[in-house]
Every structure is written in C-alpha cells, then in structure tokens.
Amino acid sequence: MSTDTDTSPRSEISPERSWSDRLSSVSRHDLPASIVVFLVALPLSLGIAIASDAPIAAGLIAAAVGGIVVGVLGGAPLQVSGPAAGLTVVVAETIHQFGWKTTCFITVAAGLLQVVFGLSRIARAALAIAPVVVHAMLAGIGVTIALQQVHVLLGGSSRSSAWENVTELPSQLLHLHGADVVAGVIVIAIIVAWRWVPARVKIVPGPLVAVLAGTVLSLVLPGEPVRIVIEGSLFDAIGLPGMPEGDWGAVVLAVLTIALIASVESLLSAVAVDKLHTGKRTNFDRELMAQGAANMTSGLLGGLPVTGVIVRSSTNVAAGARSKASAFLHGAWILVFSVALVGVVQQIPKSALAGLLIVVGVQLVKLAHIRLARRTGDLAVYAVTIAAVVLLNLLEGVLIGLALAFVLLLWRVVKVSVHAAPVTGTERWIVSIDGTCTFLALPKLTKELAKVPTGTDVLVELTVDFLDHAAYEAIHDWARQHENTGGNVEF
Q1: Quick one: which of 19, 83, 207, 286 is 20 to 30 A from 193 by CA?
Q2: How many helices (H) and strands (E) does the chain have?
Q3: How many angstroms separate the Cα of 60 from the Cα of each of 83, 253, 296, 305?
Q4: Is the dihedral of CA 113, 117, 123, 126 positive or negative?
C-alpha cells in the first residue's frame, strides 16, 4: 500500500503566487490609501505654490513628480514626497532674487547635489543636526507662513518680510474683503473642528472638506473672492529651466541651501515615519538619491522642489498603506486630476488655501517641542533660532541656532562644580567634584582644594563623566601633599 506525499517546501511561494499576493495587497491597502493621500496632497500643493510665489501648476508638477519618481526609486517604504512647507520661505526668496526659470535651474542643481550626497553614503550625517534647531527651524517657517497668509486671507497679498507682514497688518485689517475672509475663516474652523468628528467621518480628510466647503460658500455668498488662476493646461506649464545670469556665488549658496534643507527634512521625515509602522526600515542613502532624482525631474519640468513630507506620510500610514505603491499612485492621481480637472481647481479662492496654510503653519509650532527644549535646557536655542528664521532668513537662522547650540554644548562639556566644605559638627571635610573635570577646571579645582585645612580628614566625592590627565594629577598631587602633612584623604 503506498501513499502520495507532497514533499515540496510549504514556505516557498511561486512567482505567480507572489505577484498575485502583491497585487492583492496593493488593491486592498495601497490603492485606498493613495486616494486619501491624494485628497490631502492636492490642496496643500496648491497652497504651497501660492505661498512660494511660484506658478500654481508648479505645485501640482512637484506633487506628481514626488509621488511617481520617489515612489519608484525611494528607500523609505511609506514616505510620501512632494512640495513641502519647510521650503516655502527659501523658495520664495530664491524666486524674488533670481526669477522662476533660474529657480528651476537651482532646483535641478540641488537635486544633483542630493544624488551626490546619497552616493557618498553620508545621508545619516544629516541626522546629526541638533533636534532643537530642526524643531525651531520648522516653527520659524510656520510662523513666517502664517504671517504671510493672514494678508491673503484678508483679501490682500503677502509682504516681502515677516516684519512688514506684522507692521502692515493693521492697515490690511482696515481694507479687508468680506468674501475672502469668510472663505478663509470657514476653512480654519472646519480643520480645527475636524479632530472632534466621529471616526467614521474622519475617513474623509479634513483639509479637503474645509477647502471644498470654503469654495462652495464663495460661490453662493455675495462678493467675489480672488480665485486661483492656471493659464492653460498642466502641459502648457512645463518648461525648461533658465541658466543663471550674473552672481554665481549667490546661485551656489541657493543650491546648497535648498539641497541641505530638503535633505534634512526628507531624512527626518523618514525617521519619523519609521516610528509609525513595523514594516521595512528606510534605506537613507537610497532615499536621498531618489529625492535628488525627483528634484532634478521637477526642476526640469518647471516644478517646485520636492521633499519627504510628514503630513502626507503620516496620513499614508494611518490610511493603511503597505508599500511604495501608495505614494506612486497618489502621484498618478494628481497628474490625472491636474490634466482633466483644471477648471475645478480654478474655482478655489486663494483665501481658502490661505486658511489651510495658516493652520499648517501654526501646527509646525509644537508645544511638545517647546516643553522638551525647556526640560533639556535648550529653550534659549529654540527661541533664538525661531527669531532669527522669522526676522532674518532660513539659512542665517539655522546657522545662528547651530552656533548657539554648539556654544552651549562646549559650556556643558567644560562645566564642572567643585565645592569644599566642612561636615557640620565635625572636623572632617568633604570635597565634591561634579561634571566634566579637565585642565580647564584647574583654577577652580585648586582654589577649592586650598580651602581644606592641613591635618584634617577629607572625603573626596567624584561624580564625573570625564577626568583628564591634568585634573587627575592635580587631585592626586594635592592628596599626596595633604597626607604628607598629617591629613587623611579618602576617595
């Protein structure tokens, strides 16, 4: 009697089965998630283009390129890329200084530099920037965006600097446009209130509902708010970048600034997204090269710079995405929408997008980061960096913040507490040394040790994280001399 047994390994899956499972996962998880991310990314991309003083279509091009290119090449499985609020200020300054075509060239060059960074395998080095400086940089960007967009919400236009936006706000309040204000305030109110709606309703993204409500309201209420204008189709907006003329030093500085900020923001976003899921971890060098490729493509097509965006990425994770297919599909939806439904986009009031950006800007200032800075003694770095980013510019603000953080680091490294005092009611003395004891502490160390009378019993309490050779010799030379004069030293 014989029986047939299946001896093939159960753990092996045929290629057909593998592709079938993958297609099933994409259709069940990534496809629905991509639609949710698309609905969040669309109004944000339009708003960021307006806030950057770039062509409206540039935001849509960057969103489509970020989704498709990084979705194919990226090393962060669930990160979604596109135009980001973090680059709004520096892009606006670049456009004002060089013009739009040259800014596209700078975007291409910044992308090429990012590819070099990735090939050099130095991606993780970007994560060495003090977190408090990054948090303050984002908060400063948020404050700047909010100050700019308040003027747009009131029916005016943003000024060239944060200081002008503040000083000219009273005048703008005296000349506000009712229709614009209503549309913008409705958007803010809906987004803020969306956190309290039932979970089943939250499936629909709050920003989309808010912008849609603001647009519909602007169509039925009296008054005519300023609306988005897109000249021609998305393909008409595609154009090659222009070569810089004149100050190449300023161009190189702009390339470095955009490349570094885009790289740091993308890598920090990838780190944050990795904490939100338990799947495959990020390959940082590959992700950085993909971001560079996306920026080169976006710049060549006439789009804004691209970075990894935590708002879209966290939405992607929350919507149940399982792979990079979600990011790719979200880019494809934006492309289809931009080509087929340009007329719908042009019904959106600018003030509605301004309301959305004001909320985004305010959300970049996180109370948790302020509390953390206060608890760790970095509140001064946080405050100075924000002030410098808002009042000067992004690059100078970050450099000032990094310099101050480095100074405080040096201060903590060389800081040491040395205290010599008698024990109450006895003739015994205690010498406590706490901190980092190096040659820099010798003046304070010898001054305190000289207070100890000869012939006494001394307890030396060392609570140090580092003791260099000079400090070691000074303490032991003093101890030997003290014992030679009749005293006793115990460590």
Answers
A1: 83
A2: 22, 6
A3: 9, 26, 16, 11
A4: negative
User: What are 104's two structure tokens?
Assistant: 């596209």
Q: Which two tokens stand for residue 341?
A: 């439904």
| Cα 138 versus chain centre, distance | 6
**Six-digit token string for 137:** 């940089």
- Are β-strands 307-308 and 81-82 bridged in parallel, bridged antiparallel, or unpaired? antiparallel
Reference 91, options 134, 58, 130, 44; nearest CA is 58
Rounded to an integer, what distance in angstroms lies between the CA atom of residue 280 and that of residue 272?
A: 14
Radius of gyration of the chain (CA): 29
Percent of the chain with pLDDT over 90: 35
DSSP code at position 251: H
Of 224-228, 292-296, 333-337, 396-400, the range with the highest mean pLDDT is 292-296
Amino acid identity for residue 420 in this structure? A
Q: Kindly compute the dihedral angle of the four CA atoms of residues 294, 138, 91, 153, in this order, to the nearest 10 degrees.
A: 120
Burial 421-454 (b: 16+ CB within 10 A, else e): eeeeeeeebebebebbbbebbeeebeebbeebee
Q: Which of 204, 168, 188, 151 is nearest to 38 (CA)?
A: 204
Q: Is the pLDDT of residue 12 over 60?
A: no
Helix/strand/coil for 463? strand
pLDDT bin (cut points 50, 70, 90) of residue 299 is very high
d(CA 50, CA 226): 12
> Alpha helix (H) ranges present in 169-283?
169-174, 178-193, 206-220, 234-237, 248-274
Q: What's the whole-number mean pLDDT along residues 183-198?
A: 90
Q: Is 3 helix (H, G, I), strand (E, B) or coil?
A: coil
Q: What end-to-end distance do the CA atoms of the chain give, in Å?
A: 85
Q: Could you give the CA distance from residue 108 to residue 65 in angstroms, rounded to a whole number?
A: 13
Mean pLDDT, the chain, integer: 86
The tokens of 124 are what? 């993780």
Whether the Cβ atoms of residue 433 and residue 460 lie closer than 8 Å to each other: yes
CA–CA distance, 364 with 136 (Å, rounded to integer): 9
The residue type found at 66 is G
- How many whole angstroms separate alpha carbon 416 and alpha carbon 402? 23
The pLDDT of residue 61: 93
Residue 273: which residues within 8 A CB-CB, separation 6 or more?
A: 76, 78, 79, 282, 308, 310, 313, 314, 317
Which H, E and C letters describe 69-119, residue by residue? Answer: HHHHHCCCCCCCEECCHHHHHHHHHHHHHHCHHHHHHHHHHHHHHHHHHHH
State the Cα–Cα distance between residues 180 and 227, nearest whole angstrom: 9
* Rounded Cα gap, residues 244 and 242, in angstroms: 6
